[in-house]
Design a protein that fits this description.
Number of strands: 45
Largest sheet: 6 strands, antiparallel
Strand order of the largest sheet: 1-2-3-4-6-5
Structural class: alpha+beta
Distance between the termini: 48 Å
Strand content: 25-35%
Number of helices: 14
Radius of gyration: 33 Å
Shape: elongated
């Protein structure tokens, strides 16, 4: 951080610049203060000499939109995008974005201060970045924004500040014809081989970053610098100094074959199953880094606006004219001869370079004339050196010899960017990068382009930055408020197409040029529509903190301008309608149920309570409903709850007991009846099992024999009960189950003539298990009389196998690793769907012509009921094999929700498009217990209620 220079802008919209924060290849960041609210912000302002290039402008704006779409968690939502209502008369409008300031250190600087991170810090760092990548990759995009200078360490977790190649560039350069060339900081094996990048490329770079953070060096450092490309492409990484528990995961990330690398979701879950935020609770930075972050914050808060020179422009300086990018005769700028020093900045100070900014010999490519070099202002004197990994720099690689296609004149538009940030997924596939401008070498410092504006005349030096006060006043907390977008990368160097300092210069495919005279409102509506349809990654919430991302507009409560509406971001859930935390003073919820899409009824050990589904406010609680089973609708105006000793009918308005039927009264001929779990319900009818103990008298002994002892015998029944008429419909004797004796039944399907039930394997007696010989049974009971019609077994379906059925007479069951369909009445096999090796299917969900499937391998899919044809199959990206996710359909049956022990994933029910993911890390209290309960999802009209332990989130769904 340094004082403002004389030619620096003093105002960016409503923000007043206070100091320079960081200077990079394509942009400069400033510390600024909102003149209205006093909020401290970081402004990212494009370099004027690049802002004039149409390709650069579109790339800058595209990455700013990416940052906005990723806002939340470890990415800060922009405070302002710098969009001016009108274009200035003297040229293109300045390019800048603003985001809230969060004290944080770049990873490279942190390693220089405190050395390598410990295992816990590495897990938090890697999990946080992987959570972001998971959201990006789920949308079909590639980030290409990771580098030691773009990953920051804040007091509560990591931050990402670059959202595309431009933000993470080692250098950026204007090319003839309006093209833009960017040299990336990190290379992957596939890039060295000239192949297209993919999501796996981000995982390779994440592996390099984690190895660097763990050791302070990179895993491909041994050997000459000119052979770095060969080592990256062919050598095994040196990871002996990496903590043993993380070595295998990082090794997998650094696999040469992209297909062998894990997904971002897998990495996030393996590093921190409870989420990076959950693992970071209570602090995670070493003492030296925590002190450095606090010192930075104190210095920033102490900044005051410098006195403005009346001649100082109010806005960013006008971009350099396009003519200034080329010399008078149109030739490329001369490059410094070998062995000569690079030109120094105008102020005469030498620009310090990191160790890996020293050039190596570049492969000479058959290319057009070298592009004009752009200038980079020197780093502030005395700024800490940022040690970058050796493989974070471009290196030699064989260059293609074919002549490059000529660059067409124009604005540089070559189609939508699908090779880097592919959120919109519209338009044709762009051409490949211009190989003639792709060089693998290291940067030197940039020199000023011929014809560029001369250095300004020396002016009085602005006042120096104030020293940090002893006890600065901390700003209000900002949940998940990361550092601003975008971060500048390494100091840039000359970008000549074959010069010693070039490459890898990648001509970026860019978003399409805007149509003439666009309608801003229509463009925004279009973007909102596309963003809402994009598919998803991961968002971490916690306790009473809402997951970010909404299309709702906040209502202004004072005279300040109303904020811009926040967009629903691809990859994260929409803004919850409400969040309800069950009181910590009460026992944890036992059951939850939705009553007529109006109430969420929660039962616990101490009471039953109701939450308004519109507002998330608790309406009432009733102790009579303690230990009750899931609530049901008894007609239009009563809530039915089965407690351990009675049936209750409660008022939905206030929880008052309207009717009460004790089991001793309703089933007087069955004294001591113990009611088991409800087996199912259909309309007003519920089915359940119950048992009671009777004394069987010993038979009269024969003459001369002693009388035997009376026996206590458990008798069980299967019941049908109408909860509207409050009367028993029928009961039928059934075999008693394992002690204490009540068998647990589950209704598989309710048909017009009969009801099919399955007994839970855990309630089978030892004799029943032995007699079954490893096969499960389905029982059919007459709907009207309760008479047992038949008991059947289906092929090799085991007692534990998940089963489901439909009214058309088809039974679906897990058989080994496969899902098989049977004709219910004849047991005839119909079709089979193959599952994953080592996995089994969970309970399927029937919906119209489809069956939605779930597997322990965390695959969710859809199958045609009639033919068994697989329609789609997707992964939730949860690592390992646990229980199969439970499935819930939204009220419209358009959204499928998969809930497991790690997260909730939303899919489009029709085609399997992954919409969003959600994780709740539990209480934000550092002393709070880590939540390990599985997720549950309940559908209520256009809302899905997600529960994890005590916290409930109501998300709008289609």
């Amino acid at each position: 951080m340094e004082a403002l220079r004389q030619d620096d802008p003093r105002r960016f919209g409503r923000f007043t610049a206070l100091a320079r924060f960081h200077e990079g290849a394509s942009a400069v960041r400033y510390v600024a203060r909102d003149t209205a609210s006093g909020e401290v912000a970081l402004i990212t302002a494009a370099r004027p000499e690049l802002a004039v290039v149409p390709a650069y402008r579109r790339r800058f704006q595209a990455e700013a939109r990416t940052a906005e779409r990723l806002a939340g968690g470890w990415v800060a939502p922009p405070l302002d995008t710098g969009e001016e209502p009108e274009t200035p008369a003297d040229g293109p409008e300045p390019l800048w974005t603003a985001a809230g300031y969060v004290p944080a250190l770049p990873l490279a600087e942190a390693i220089g201060i405190a050395g390598p991170l410990d295992e816990r810090a590495l897990r938090i760092l890697g999990a946080g970045i992987a959570e972001i990548l998971s959201r990006v990759h789920a949308a079909g995009a590639v980030l290409q924004g990771l580098a030691p200078g773009t990953v920051l360490l804040a007091s509560d977790g990591p931050r990402l500040t670059a959202f595309g190649p431009l933000g993470a560039a080692a250098s950026a350069e204007a090319r003839p014809g309006g093209q833009l060339s960017v040299r990336l900081g990190y290379l992957t094996p596939e890039q060295i081989e000239g192949k297209e990048v993919s999501a796996a490329s981000d995982l390779f770079v994440l592996g390099l970053l984690l190895a660097y953070a763990a050791t302070g060096a990179t895993p491909f450092t041994e050997g000459p610098a000119e052979e770095a490309a060969r080592r990256i492409a062919g050598d095994e990484p040196e990871l002996d100094a990496v903590p043993e528990a993380l070595r295998e995961l990082i090794t997998n990330c650094l696999a040469k074959d992209p297909a062998a690398r894990p997904s971002a979701g897998t990495v996030a879950a393996e590093l921190a199953l409870e989420g990076a935020a959950g693992l970071a609770r209570g602090g995670w930075l070493p003492e030296r880094l925590a002190a450095a972050v606090a010192d930075q914050e104190a210095r920033v808060l102490a900044l005051k606006a410098p006195e403005e020179n009346p001649e100082t422009p109010e806005k960013a300086p006008a971009p350099v004219p396009a003519e200034a990018l080329e010399s008078v005769d149109g030739t490329a700028a001369p490059e410094p001869e070998e062995g000569t020093a690079a030109p120094e900045p105008a102020d005469g100070t030498a620009a310090p370079q990191p160790e890996d900014a020293r050039p190596v010999d570049a492969a000479t490519l058959d290319a057009p004339a070298s592009p004009v070099e752009t200038s980079v202002a020197p780093a502030p004197a005395g700024s800490p050196a940022t040690a970058e990994p050796a493989d974070a720099r471009p290196v030699d690689a064989p260059a293609p010899q074919a002549a490059a296609a000529p660059v067409a004149a124009g604005d540089g538009d070559i189609g939508e960017d699908r090779g880097t940030t592919r959120f919109l997924n519209t338009g044709p596939r762009p051409p490949q990068s211009d190989r003639a401008t792709t060089q693998l070498s290291l940067p030197q410092e940039l020199v000023a382009p011929p014809g560029a504006a001369p250095a300004p005349v020396a002016q009085p030096i602005p006042p120096a930055l104030p020293a940090a006060p002893v006890a600065p006043q901390r700003p209000g907390p900002t949940h998940g408020g990361p550092a601003p977008y975008p971060a500048a990368a390494l100091p840039a160097g000359p970008a000549g197409s074959g010069g010693a300092g070039g490459g890898p210069m990648v001509s970026l495919p860019l978003p399409p040029a805007p149509a003439p005279v666009p309608d801003p409102a229509a463009s925004r509506r279009t973007l909102l529509t596309i963003a809402a349809a994009a598919v998803g990654g991961l968002i971490v919430g916690g306790g009473a903190v809402a997951a970010l991302g909404s299309g709702d507009t906040a209502v202004a409560t004072d005279d300040k301008p109303a904020p811009k509406p926040r967009r629903t971001l691809p990859g994260q859930p929409p803004e919850p309608r409400w969040i309800y935390p069950h009181p910590a003073s009460e026992s944890s919820p036992l059951t939850t149920a939705v009553w007529r899409d109006k109430l969420l009824v929660v039962t616990s050990e101490s009471q039953a309570s109701a939450v308004d589904l519109r507002t998330g406010k608790r309406l009432w609680q009733r102790a009579d409903g303690a230990k009750g089973q899931a609530a049901l609708a008894a007609g239009a105006d009563l809530v039915f709850v089965a407690s351990p000793s009675e049936f209750l009918w409660l008022s939905p308005k206030n929880g008052r007991v309207v009717h009460r039927v004790r089991y001793t009264d309703a089933f007087g001929d069955l004294p001591g009846l113990a009611v088991g779990p409800l087996a199912g319900n259909s309309g007003p009818v519920i089915w359940f099992t119950g048992s009671h103990t009777v004394t069987v008298k010993a038979p009269k002994p024969k003459k001369g024999k002693k009388k035997g002892k009376d026996k206590e015998v458990v008798q069980a029944h299967f019941f049908a009960y109408d909860i509207v008429q409050r009367k028993e419909l029928w009961r039928t004797p059934v075999p008693a189950g394992r002690a204490p004796g009540t068998p647990a039944y589950r209704v598989v399907v309710d048909r017009s003539a009969d009801v099919l039930v399955r007994q839970d394997a855990a309630s089978l007696t030892a004799a029943e298990v032995k007699a079954a010989k490893g096969k499960g049974s389905i029982r059919s009971f007459d709907q009207k009389t309760g008479k047992l019609l038949w008991t059947k077994q289906y092929a090799a379906v085991s007692p534990e196998a998940a089963t489901g059925g439909d009214e058309d007479g088809t039974l679906y069951a897990a058989v080994g690793k496969d899902l098989q369909a049977f004709e219910t009445d004849t047991t005839k096999p119909l079709w089979r769907v193959e599952g994953s090796d080592g996995s089994v299917f969970g309970t399927p969900l029937v919906a119209g012509p489809l069956i939605h499937t779930t597997e322990r391998s965390q695959l969710v899919g859809a199958v045609e009921r009639e033919s068994g044809r697989l329609v789609w199959r997707r992964s939730t990206e949860v690592p390992g094999t646990g229980n199969a996710p439970s499935l819930t359909l939204s009220g419209s049956e358009k959204t499928l929700i998969a809930a497991d022990a790690v997260q909730v994933t939303a899919f489009s029910a029709a085609d399997g498009e992954r919409l969003w993911k959600f994780q709740d890390i539990g209480s934000a209290d550092p002393k709070g217990a880590t939540v390990s309960a599985s997720y549950r999802a309940l559908a209520a009209g256009e809302t899905v209620v997600v529960q994890r332990d005590r916290v409930f989130y109501a998300f709008p769904v289609a």
